[in-house]
Amino acid sequence: MPELPEVETTTIGLRKTIISLKIKDIWTDLATKDKRQSEAISNPAYFKIFRKEVLNKKIISIERRAKNILINLSGDKTILVHMKMTGHLMYGEYKKDPINRFIHFTITFNNKEKLYFSDARKFGKITLLDTKTAHDTKHLNNIGPEPFKKQFTLEKLKERLNKKPNGKIKTVLMGQSIIAGIGNIYSDEILWRAGIHPERKVLKIKEKEFKLIFKAIKETLKKGIDFGGDSMSDYRNINGLPGKFQLHHEAYRRTGEKCRKKGCKGIILRKIINGRSAHFCSMHQK
Question: Is 276 assigned a catalytic role?
Fold first, then answer.
């Protein structure tokens, strides 16, 4: 699933390409009777309403909240896109990569270019919100603080993590109600950098270790953005091209390989923790 760096990379790309354009047409081949999708474009009845509301609207601004992309339109409407496990957005003449062939939604703009949503497993969510109340809806109102906001301090991190004192640190870091945007890949990389074992309970983490985790969150997520996201799986940027963070993994999916931390003689192990795979060093992560 795309995490904060992948969603931020997409958001940055969209800001460069679609702001001020007008929506002239939309299309989808999604159709489900699943009641859980009653307020998403995959519900044919909802799609009719969605289409009527967004046609001829102008793209005003684009923002990210956790793993969600918010495309703000004229008329105080906001298209929310959550890419889920295998989704990604592409604009214009994207690269013809096999990963990009699962097109299930398009927006056509007044410049004749299109925004495409490719989603192999069809788990992605696209819905429409009122801009003024978007952050108060069920889609966004239970999300933790953003790691790059100035309000996200060391004290805030400790406060958030301590909401789950008996939780294992990897699982707690991945909880979107605790901190926004961290998932399986970046939690492994953060804990490798901080030297913390993924099964450590939050209540066992010392003051100096909170500082290491705080620093590692900032550095690791920034590195992910700097390298254009992680394309170990399906993620592609708006040009249909892979990011490069997967070339710089220290822990994630490096099972059996030597730890690259200077002076460390450990190897990377893999273990299932609360249903998710964790990759960590056998020596320096304690």
Answer: yes
